Amino acid sequence: MSSFSTDPSRDPRAPADPVTPRRPGADPDLVRTKIVATLGPASRSEEAIRGLVQAGVDVFRLNMAHGSLPEHAETLERIRRMSDELVRPVGVLVDLAGPKIRLGELPDGAVDCVEGTRIRFVRGPGPATADTFTTTYAPLVDELRVGDPVMLADGTVSLVVEERQPDEVICRVVQQGTVRSRQGVNLPGVKLSVAAMSAADWEHAEWAAGVGADFVSLSFVRSPVEVRLLKELLRTRGSVARVVAKIEKREAVDAMEAIVEAADVVMVARGDLGVEIDVATMPMVQKRIIRVCQRYQKPVIVATQMLDSMQHSRRPTRAEATDVANAILDGADACMLSGETAIGDHPSLVVEMMRRIARATESQYLADRRLSLEERQRAPWLAAAAEVGPAEVLAEGLHPITQAVVDGAGRIAVDVGARLVVVASRTGLTAISRSKRRGAVPTVGVSDNVATLRQMALYWGVTPLAGTVSTDVQALLGHVTSWGLGAGRLRTGDRIVLVAGVGFGTGGHNMALVKEV
């Protein structure tokens, strides 16, 4: 076991007023949507990490595109130390850079691209000029064709290929703007031969396996084969990290179902995706990805520029607040902060704001769900239900009996007005199953596996709790009851629904039990 304590007095999310009357399943302090925060120069100190955990971060992202391995190792050690100190299981996501194509060094660090002018892309790492650019991708000159689009600086500058020579391609600027050294190059619709993982990515993935990272994400995924390759690499190194497939290429959208099925977690990486596809279609593609993840029972993260203006401002724009709320309503399990916490002026304030938006959104969402339940109780033939409908495909390794018991426990919890649904799980699969149902009654995931606890930190509506997973149901209930009473999550007279297994050889969780505190 880790040093995660079950001392409820140290739970930073305990309600401030434990005597306020509550509706069954209501918990005004609990935020179900999880927050992923990127660490960087503004936030990697020990004190900053502590503040972010206290503000509500559930998973920290280490961006391998920046920083050295010794720096990342030091940051990860600080995360683990703060997690233990604050008695909060916190996950770590190692984000591989992937085959990102970048510009070389430009004169004075930046060049103004004027509409109608011509820009040459040439081979090799030689010096660039105001109208001659180099890139980090050597075969670029060979793989571009006349008419292909070239997008620079996150799509703010657009070019089109007009001419090809043996050692260069000549493009015309169709949307002007300023580009800077090392900025990204996007080639929407262009088929590239670049491998999914560079030599640096392999090194970083092996490092992630060795240090016990909880999640490893693969950038610029194009096929499920690439996801399975990373899975195999991690497993052969003894890692139990879950693989996150980042959807940010047109090819990934085209192969979405197969990629979602192969991955453990999915990220809607809207930065590059919004350049690779028509930005006008981005909102509906986001919704489609989330729906597919719901069908396959895969946690999904929505990322990029969610509260971008708060890198410097102390208040988000109305559009940003609406964006976060809509992602939650779409069904996102987590929302991710990037530059806002990595290089922003006030990282903890951004996390607190995202948490506020999530709390307000979930409050209305769950109120609407309770209304639907009341209508259903008055008229059972109505389609409205308290839970999301059954998944079309069970999560890999999840026993169908477990799924059926989880579904039944969710309905029982609503019918008896339970305060908590408790799932005991060594792998976390049962917690995923419960999480993807979006139940109004909060879930506590109990595990004696440290890695599982940290991974459950990403699952919507699940509070990870260290505890022994065994067939001693009464001991398990006693442990949860003690924690819940101390943390203010339970009171005398409240009801708990426990999902567990009693060893009849089914291979899954086969029991739902109701206990009154």
Description:
By secondary structure, this protein is of the alpha/beta class. It folds into three domains: 234 residues, TIM Barrel (Alpha-Beta Barrel); 80 residues, M1 Pyruvate Kinase, Domain 3; 117 residues, 3-Layer(aba) Sandwich (Pyruvate Kinase, Chain: A, domain 1). 36% of the residues lie in helices and 20% in strands. It is built from 16 helices and 21 strands.
The poorly predicted ranges are: 5-22, 375-388
What is the CATH topology assignment of the largest domain? TIM Barrel
Helicity range: 25-40%
The number of helices is 16
CATH class membership of the largest domain: Alpha Beta
Describe what is shown at a glance.
By secondary structure, this protein is α/β, with parallel strands linked by helices. The chain is built from 16 helices and 21 strands.
